[in-house]
Write a structure and sequence with these properties.
The complex is a heterodimer.
Chain A lengths: L3 H18 L5 H28 L10 E10 L5 E8 L1 H24 L6 H19 L4 H19 L6 H32 L4 H5 L4 H8 L2 E2 L2 E2 H16 L8 H4 L5 H10 L4 H8 L1 H7 L1 H22 L5 H21 L10 H31 L15 H15 L5 H16 L1 H26 L15 H16 L22 H23 L1 H14 L2 H55 L8 H22 L1
Helix pairs in contact in A: 1-2, 1-4, 2-3, 2-4, 3-4, 3-11, 3-16, 3-20, 4-5, 5-6, 6-9, 9-12, 9-14, 11-16, 13-14, 14-15, 14-19, 15-16, 15-18, 15-19, 16-17, 16-18, 16-20, 17-19, 17-20, 18-19, 18-21, 19-21
Chain B lengths: L9 H19 L8 H16 L7 E3 L4 E3 L1 H25 L2 H4 L2 H20 L3 H19 L6 H32 L7 H4 L4 H18 L7 H8 L2 H25 L5 H24 L4 H22 L2 H32 L10 H4 L1 H15 L5 H15 L3 H26 L14 H19 L1 H11 L3
Antiparallel strand pairs in B: 1-2
The chains are: A mainly alpha, B mainly alpha.
Chain lengths: 637, 474
Amino acid sequence: MEYTLIILLLPAIMFLFLGLAGHKLKHKVAGLFGTISLGLVTCLSYFTAWEYFTSPRVNGVFEKIIPFNFEWLSFSEALHVDIGILLDPISVMMLIVISTVSLMVHIYSLGYMHGEKGFQRYYAFLSLFTFSMLGLVVATNIFQTYIFWELVGVSSYLLIGFYYTKPSAIAASKKAFIVTRFADLGFLIGILVLSFYSQTFSFVELMNGSSDAILTGAATQTFLGIGVLSWALGLMFIGAAGKSAMFPLHIWLPDAMEGPTPVSALIHAATMVVAGVYLVARMFYLYIGFAPGVLEIIAIVGAFTSLFSAIIACVQTDIKRVLAFSTISQIGFMMVALGVCTGMDSHEGLGYMASMFHLFTHAMFKALLFLGAGSIIHAVHSNEMKDMGGLRKFMPITHITFLIACLAIAGIPPFSGFFSKDEILAAAFKFNPAMGWTMTVIAGLTAFYMFRLYFNIFWGKEAKHHHTPHESPLTITIPLIILAIVTIFGGFIPFGHFITSDGLLYNIHLDPQVAITSVVVAVLSIAIATIFYKNKEQKIPAMLGEKLSGLHKAATKKFYIDEVYQFITHRIIFACISTPIAWFDRHIVDGFMNLMASSTQSLSYSIRKFQSGHVQQYAFVFLLGIIFIIGLILLVI
Amino acid sequence: MDYSQFLYMKEEVSLVGVIAILFLYDLIAGEKGRKYFSLITCLLLGGHIIYNFLPTSTSGAVFGGMYYYTPMMTIIKSILTFGTLIVVMQADTWLRREDTKFKQGEFYVLLLSTLLGMFFMIASGHFLMFFIGLEMASIPMATLIAFDKYKHDSAEAGGKYILTAMFSSALLLFGLSLLYGACGTLYFDDIPATLDGNLMQMAAFVFFLAGIGFKISIVPFHLWTADVYQGAPTSVTSFLSVVSKGSAVFVLLTILMKVFAPMVQEWQIIIYGLIVVTITIGNLFAIRQKNIKRFLAFSSISQAGYILLGVIGGTQLGMSSLVYYVLVYMVANLAIFGVVSIIEQRTGMINIEDYNGLYLTNPKLSFLTTLALFSLAGIPPFAGFFSKFFVFMAAFEKGFYVLVIIALLNTIISLYYYLLLVKAMYINKSDSPIESFKSDCYTRTSLVICLIGIVCLGLAGVVYETISLFGYGM
């Protein structure tokens, strides 16, 4: 399967080509070049998946294949860095996800970014991002993962800052870059520690049991009372948490919405942000075997982040920000699923399969939501809900596809989200009923805020528009339709046949109790959202009508119920919980980061007097330095 | 006398040859001949590098142990010559100006004399030889800094440099005399046997370290750096920041490993502290700089701290990672200085805010600078990432976990201020941006070489492997 190398090289070549010669091409030509090359990549990825999953299983599992490997840097006999391609069930699945979403975004951008300045540059960056993301998932060793991990960061920096004339976009891109770099620090130290003890970077060597003896030996060593492997894997999780926007490192993601909307769909919904989940899944064998404590932390962090951001999503008015918080919340789900695993076999490791399944379905329906949001923004030229309303008449295709995605994320059968979320809930319940119920509540919240969004955009009161909104062109609607189809049928993929924690075949069966509970919760939440937001604009005219005709009784009653709902949610839940949490997020979490930045600044300001320009003083400091060092030695030795 | 001993000194001998040729050429070449001066210098230096790599005798000590040769020396000296070559190429525009045209020859001869001093310093086997090399490298350096002597800044910088250099030399000599008193010898080979880490020896070591720390600009011996970098002609600044610094680091590591090896416990503590303050102070000062040369001065101070990370382990890995780091740092820094220099020559602008909107007028220069800054910040896949990774690895291997974490945290601060410059070029608006210009072919060639270095040094594993192969000869 050497042709997989082409999957990796094609976007890289396209980046160089568009980056160097792009400005000489016409917009359309550059866009077509990028799109067609990505089309080829997608075809090859599907072909790879087909060939890989139809090849016979060995001992009941799909073999890990390394079709290409190249020894690159060698530190010592044992420790060397390779660049290569590793095919195993999860990397092949990621190839599908990335190439599909990226292709959709490429096609979509042809219409969405039409006429933007730097169109060719945009496509060059898209290719660079796709290349780095593909390189990340097929990495054969952790060092390669890290390099592509950073490259993903760089290309996301470039893409968020694409509107470089907009100060907020620039600030956001810088924030994203620096916050994730900060997290990557943990990752890098984790790599250093792990490779130091295991004497290998290679995933295959780490996972196939040949390093178990060394690792078991290393696990007995401790640092500050915690095993060194737990340190290494915990630090790696910090890196993963940075990319996957886990609390408190999530602060960059909502701001990153300043980038072009298709970029948000690609990077901040479907691919880059799940890199952290992918990393944990990739190292899953080690987490289970040598650091089960870290897995529990992952579960807790995931659940907290998920709840926290779901609550915040309820009060956002910028539609992209609602989706951003929803993404954070959904990634929390995936992290929880990984965290609740207790063993490698398919029952104890059900969460592993569920997490990957949810990653897959979420990538599709969240990309659909973002692209739909882009289509809406394209039509009304605003991100704010108040500028929308009643759009269903003007944009039928966007409306239907958006509704499908909302149903999927809310967990309504038979849409894909139902199946994957159900597996996560089942795994959570198996781990601990409290965790199961927490996740069920979050699932309910999800359904609520998604339908709040839906009704505010497509129903409700029509905003005044400068011109009548119209349906987007075909380049925008076709990706929407394709993704909607995937969202409708994606749940029926027998995922357990492809990806399980131990690699053996597993038949997914729905746990009726969990399934019914979650569907009931979701339906209730949607019903509440419907009462609140669908009829909202009819309330005032209706009320006026009631007053005039004197039919108060029924009306007052309705009004009263409405008010109770309003009171409970808006006054109690929103004002007492959501708003403070949002405030906490803005001021304390974000503020802490800002404080660190500003204290660095002020420290730098206060010590500038040392640099006076007087040579005498320089000599004085020079001598003082020596005396100080000698004094120090006297004390120490 | 056995003249075959000179065969060991082929780098020095050939460099003396180059200097002599240039000196004579300066005398005989007329107005017309001077036009080709830089071309001839470049060719000679290129030839010099190639000649150095011809296979010769194995390692050994000659002239009664005063002079050492190991294959690693060839690598180190070639890296330094390579840096000098780039500096010469970038200095061309400046040297063709009316007020410097007539003294081109002096510049080349002084520059190469400094390099010669560094060669002797690196290859020395005795502290006397080391001191002579150090002074040989310092004195012409001061005249180079004051090369634009009718400019106030340049003259002042030269004055500051020579005063500080004298001061540090005096301290260094004091340290050496203490060392002689404690050990009874100044031969590198004999000292280790007599070292037991008593206070006098420690004091001698600290004075020595301060003297060499001045050259590397380690905090607190760094205060001259910003003023001198700012005042000196840009080409000289770039020479100071890469070649001069690089040579001093090589010497430091050699002496630490060879001479002060028995005191490793003690000096590791000192170096540890110096790394922490150097990186941190360098970074903190860099954040607020307005003048790009001062900005780069502080950036280079913090980079010196990272270089010392390779020193602290005192291992083979440390040695090869350090040599690799210097090489990588050299290409990235020279790329930025090349851009700064050409912009200063064309427009006279040297403030960071003058770079606002550079992307719109000079996209290629901005792109190159961005890559170089990313490399300095240690972002993969640029070479700077790998060099940082190797020095971190070297320190980590020896158990300096906390130090590595401090250094890593500092890379984030450095990323912040490097991005400030990127932001200025790409994002900030300017009413009067630097106008679009086409640079001359020398500068362009040098920048292309740097670009190749930034991208390929990391990706081509063979570079590091060659260095580490020779590292075992140390």
